[in-house]
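**User:**
Make up any protein.

**Assistant:**
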Amino acid sequence: MSIIKIIGCILVIASSTGIGFFFSCEMRGRIEDLKELKKLIGLLRGDIRYANTPLPEAISSITRRHSGRFDDFFNYVSIKLHELSGLTFSDIWKDATEQQLANSSLSKKDKLHLIQFGENLGYLDKDMQMNTLDLYISQLEEEISEMTKTVKEKSYLYNSLGIMAGIFITIIMI
């Protein structure tokens, strides 16, 4: 067998293994993103409930106090709310979700829930906003616990499938 075939086989196995590890890390990143989002929504709830802060000011407060994965998202929403461009809160929230969270680890389902949360949050009175915030936090907790239960098995599965797919492709190539 020539050296080029051996190098090719090694590259195929390494790349498919890398893809398996990528999907495994992406799933763990999704859990971390959901946990951080839950923390930020909790901060938003506290500002609105206890400090009686209006929604635009509460979002600006979160932007100033927190730095992390959702920094650009909340900063975008805050800037657009203060521009007074005539857009509704739900439109701004939806645009921010689609633009600023495009490269995050959140799934399409997570982003859809976040958009629906923004649609329900922007136009309600304080009590209804609290109920909406509480409902969304409970949805996030449920999603996090569901993902946490299966992350170990799925990570092992993704890693193993990546390695096995590389070996299978290598056998077929030979």
About this structure: The mean pLDDT is 88. The helical segments are 3-50, 55-65, 71-83, 89-100, 108-121, 126-173. The two ends are 9 Å apart (CA to CA). The chain is about 85% helix and 0% strand.
